[in-house]
Amino acid sequence: MNITDMILVTEKHKGSETNSIMDLLDFIDFAVKESWLSLKELAEDMETLGRTCGGKEKWMESCFAENTTLFARYCADEKQLEAFLRGSYNTDKEWKFDEQRCSENCLDCLKGLGISTDKRSEQEYEMPGQMKKLDEHRSRLQNQFNLFYTLSQNALATDSIKSEAVKAMYEEFGTGRREVFINNLENGKYDPGFTHEAKQRKERAI
Question: What is the pTM of this model?
């Protein structure tokens, strides 16, 4: 399978965005079963999709249900594919990549090219050794959260201390629930803080 045979797909539903990559047959099956398109609308969208070949900017856009929109285009090249996998075309910070929706031959093609579907892959970071520093950054965040969480659950702590600990968790991490924090940490939600710090260090060094 060639990269240019892949279809980049984003389903936006009530503000949340889900990315996947499909071949044409799987995309049509997905559109018919999941997108609630009529055959006439599907034919029109397939015509629009076909016109995305070769270029980079044009996307097929179909509003097929209330609060739900489907965006798709043929992949132009490897650079665009990597940008798509990093979420460069997403408008929602909470976007996700769903391998379960992807065509197997598309995923096999990625493996053959050595391209990761993990948006937190090393391709996001420019300087050598950044992944190690990123792991250290996440470790610091986890230790910080664990400290606040322990204080908030400590039966010997005063109510004011518990309240301040919970307040700090929400201010720093947007949640007081451990499972939510871990999920956010693993999905890279707190990584912008790391990249901001790295940028500041770079600017100070110039």
Answer: 0.57
The secondary structure of the chain as a DSSP string is: --GGG-EEEEEEETTEEEEEEE-HHHHHHHHHHHS---HHHHHHHHHHHHTTSS-SS--EEEEEETTEEEEEEE---HHHHHHHHTTTT-S-TT-EE-GGGS-HHHHHHHHHHT----TTSGGG--STTHHHHHHHHHHHHHHHHHHHHHHHH-TTS-HHHHHHHHHHHHHHHS-S-HHHHHHHHHTTTTHHHHHHHHHHHHHHH-
- Calpha distance 40→46 (Å, rounded): 10
**pLDDT per position as a tens digit, 38-83:** 667 777 888 888 888 877 778 999 887 667 888 999 999 888 998 8
